[in-house]
Amino acid sequence: MSIITLTTDFGIKDHFVAIAKGKLLSKIPHCQLVDVSHCIDLYNVGNASYVVSGAYASFPKNTIHIICVDAELHENSRFLLMRFDGHFFLAADNGICSLLTQEREDAVEKVVLLQNKPEHLSCMDLFADVCAAINGGADAESLGELIGSEDYVGMTELRPRISEDGNVIFANIVYEDHYGNAVSNVSKKLFEEVGKGRPFLFTGSKYKMTRINKYYADFNTETRALSEYHGSSLLIFNDLEMLQVSLYKTNPATSGSVKSLLGLGYHDPIIIEFESKNE
Amino acid sequence: MSIITLTTDFGIKDHFVAIAKGKLLSKIPHCQLVDVSHCIDLYNVGNASYVVSGAYASFPKNTIHIICVDAELHENSRFLLMRFDGHFFLAADNGICSLLTQEREDAVEKVVLLQNKPEHLSCMDLFADVCAAINGGADAESLGELIGSEDYVGMTELRPRISEDGNVIFANIVYEDHYGNAVSNVSKKLFEEVGKGRPFLFTGSKYKMTRINKYYADFNTETRALSEYHGSSLLIFNDLEMLQVSLYKTNPATSGSVKSLLGLGYHDPIIIEFESKNE
Amino acid sequence: MSIITLTTDFGIKDHFVAIAKGKLLSKIPHCQLVDVSHCIDLYNVGNASYVVSGAYASFPKNTIHIICVDAELHENSRFLLMRFDGHFFLAADNGICSLLTQEREDAVEKVVLLQNKPEHLSCMDLFADVCAAINGGADAESLGELIGSEDYVGMTELRPRISEDGNVIFANIVYEDHYGNAVSNVSKKLFEEVGKGRPFLFTGSKYKMTRINKYYADFNTETRALSEYHGSSLLIFNDLEMLQVSLYKTNPATSGSVKSLLGLGYHDPIIIEFESKNE
Fold first, then answer.
1. How far apart are CA C38 and CA B235, in angstroms?
2. pLDDT of C229-241, one tens digit each?
3. Does the ipTM exceed 0.90?
4. Is the domain B3-151 a CATH 3.90.79.10 member?
5. Which residues of C touch B122 (CB under 8 A)?
6. Lowest mean pLDDT among A125-139, B82-96, B145-159, C167-181
7. Measured between beta carbons, which residues in chain A are less than 8 angstroms from residue C26?
């Protein structure tokens, strides 16, 4: 059974998602459709890349991941089929392929520029045709023109910068999640490479922290009950192994989020200073 | 495999949608359930009709479309099974069948008044029974009483009015979507029939426009970059071929919508004046 | 075909739900995944219990219901597989099993303390393994250690109190739904046992009512049209047979909810006084 995932900025109140699913089910009756998200920030390719990066690897190899964000079909638009890390990705040539693969360019197997046909009224018509072809065993190459990474739109999100002395990481918040967590662009790998186990001082907004929780509830419960830590700020490497600022068990809808309570939101800078004398 | 779609005003936080799905899966274990929308404006049959109209035709013929909006089961409520344009529709007799079919009455194949049974505690119990019967090959006629269009509730949404001289369309905004677009009740067909290719002046709120974009990004990029058009208002025939007012790449959650920025919202009037001397 | 339902506080915008589904589909390719809700109030086990209680019984027996709310996996966390009323439930040992079963302890068939493995990075890794084992025919007992109700976390939500003379129920609002209804913790069973058919006076916030509607639209339409009752407050036993305060056809997003219009919200007290002379 073919699994197809959908990531869009279509929202959930209109008929847009159902149209996509109807077209896919019309061509591939027994496919398993899985919603990744339809609440991508409108037209935000970086946001879509973050969510798809987080989700795709949990699916079996050969899953097809459709990304419909900023993907209007018109006379100048281009659409891509990318084979990456054993999965298929269908998206507009709007930078998302470069964002998805920026940390693992070696895992890009091939990228095909798809051929749109006059009967395609939207990118979903094209994508449904391609999904059906893949499901029928077609080679990616047969569905369009193989292109190199210099031939599709490159895009870079904010990336961390390391000070010349190797003691400081200058980085940014790049995602805010449902729990109100503020996710930075500092990976665990980068943190460990630069920090080499040294003590550090994290600064975000006007707040400073010096410890990374192993898990959210990782507080000292010898002197205080765990419930007394509700609302405490913490640093943690999240499920995607990115450094994240969190407030223990707060609720953005009621008590608040990292953005509303600490003033640390999308694209805001953070600084991590490692102790230099330990080097 | 039987495909069943669901359109409701149940929302997504409670157990209501899951109850519906559990009942359907209990009777038809291998059906493919597809959510169209559970965020229909509460009790708004016109809203439901717009969304279902937009979605149904993308599905294979014989798909069953369940619409649970303003569909309380009690001693006086009536429920319908409609065969329309090759699809099945299950809904309360609350006007939705007339709205769904108002532009294509010729495609109504049959309407059956369903027989509720004492063991049905909600319309979903009835609908699950009917879906199982259809799935088992039952004829629509065997599931209730065949009735004519005069026998079910008629309802009309706001419809465009043409001036006596045939030069002006007086119409309304009838839907606001996830992107903040304001959709009117002027179809491309009506626009072309009345306009006959003449230049026109569109007025909505205090704004005027004279051009219809072929696609959203259809701007003159010889003198300005496309990104400079972000926020520009435009007219377009949307995916359902209805005239729509849009703001290029704005976000209702942040920068704004047609309603918040142009003051043009649900049920507001619009006017399209065609040049009379060209006739 | 195995049916697995999901109830979480993951929200719908991030990659969290898709990760769960990807892991399940990787282990059980043909399972039918059904979302119950991903909008549980964050970390709110009582809220999750209400929604799951409402949903589970509509599914076929042997359905697996996964509940991921306040379910962080770390060195001290415990996870349970519960067999209850012919269904399987997977959840953290955080009180939800006691809440789900508090009205029907006799229907608890067994509770197994699951064994987490080092390769499990989140509770979904563990749950996917357990689902695959159940799907493969494994006995619940073989998946961990059978434990008694004294061995898992007990939790009690607010429960109604009866006055000593048996004439008054002191209770609370325990849930607010998508329609703005305020659901109390007074079951129809309790109401009838205490009331024995006597007239009653309901008080909530500063409002009083003396009648329970048989259905929402159950108003006297001899002297007024049904549409004139829009906005009227009413009492009703909801689909879970719990006493509920509603406003007829209001919309929380526009006209208002029981909370915004009557001032009666989550955890607020209500009082039901039955006429004493009738006893």
1. 37
2. 999 999 999 999 9
3. yes
4. no
5. 239
6. B145-159
7. 58-60
